[in-house]
Amino acid sequence: MNRMAIGPYPSFSWSYSRNSSFNGCLREYYYNYYGYHFGWSKNADPEIQRIYRLKKLNSLYMVFGNAVQELTFHAFNYWSREGRLPTIDQLESFLRKELNKAVADSRNKAAFIRTPKKVLMLHESYYNEELPIDTIKTRINCCTLNFLRSKSVQEIINNTEKIELVEVDNPKEFSEPITFKGEQLFAIPDLLYKKGDKWIVVDWKTGKEDDDHVQQIYLYVLYVHYRYGIDVENIEARIEYLLYGTNKDVDVYEEEVEWMEKKMSESINSMKNYLEDPVDNKPKHMESFQASPSSFKCKTCNFREVCVESIV
Ligand code: SF4
């Protein structure tokens, strides 16, 4: 693991989620990518400590998505070790344990405030909102079942050709970025495997279908192309919708990857317009990051407690 030394400002790296934050509300982007820096230190300004804590909040849907991703990591490890997949009961039990822990941890706000890095806090619990427990309970069963039945899992376990698992992402572990035009880029796919000469990149989704998902998969293809030097024509891309038990094979050609590269370059340039010093990644004053409040955005925003522009 090669972590960079901590400087006076956070290091710059591009990711799809950073781009979404930038295009959503610039003030939220400021808090999320700059305002929190050094808030983990006991000597930091209390307001910066508060922003750092708020950055750590996760909605129950996000915790569920991460738990499913972690489940896939453990399931493939089990398969490599035992030669078979875990049962649906084992998988459901894993998910229930993770989610119960998240809900239990979230009851202890004092512990979270003392040690936000160690104690998980749900956004809904922090802001005294109802947790979508019933919705999540129904998703536990269908996502585990659909994972076991998914095209990707079936292809891997019932292979007639040689299959090699190249990457299975574990959200609890640090992932190495790649370098794109001198910038760090985080675009780690959930699953990458080889079938003969083909490289197959898979994105597990636990929510509804969205046009954004196709753009995200372009990014994963670009990642495989850059990290492993694989021709785009030898990479296949697939989105697995675990909530519905469906999948979408996405055709990605050179022109989609070039389109994604252009989009990333434009996004990076736009982000750098908000820097006072691009070398150190020193941001302009917070007031330069204009707030775009809306009832939906502010309600789901982690930073509404500190944001004077919040409308909820
Ligand atoms: S509370 Fe609303 S206006 Fe403030 S940062 Fe969040 S989304 Fe933007």
UniProtKB/TrEMBL annotation:
One of its GO terms (biological process) is DNA repair. Keywords: ATP-binding, DNA damage, DNA repair, DNA-binding, Helicase, Hydrolase, Nucleotide-binding. InterPro entries: PDDEXK-like_dom_sf, PDDEXK_AddAB-type. It comes from the Bacteria. One of its GO terms (molecular function) is DNA binding. The keyword Nucleotide-binding applies. This is PD-(D/E)XK endonuclease-like domain-containing protein.
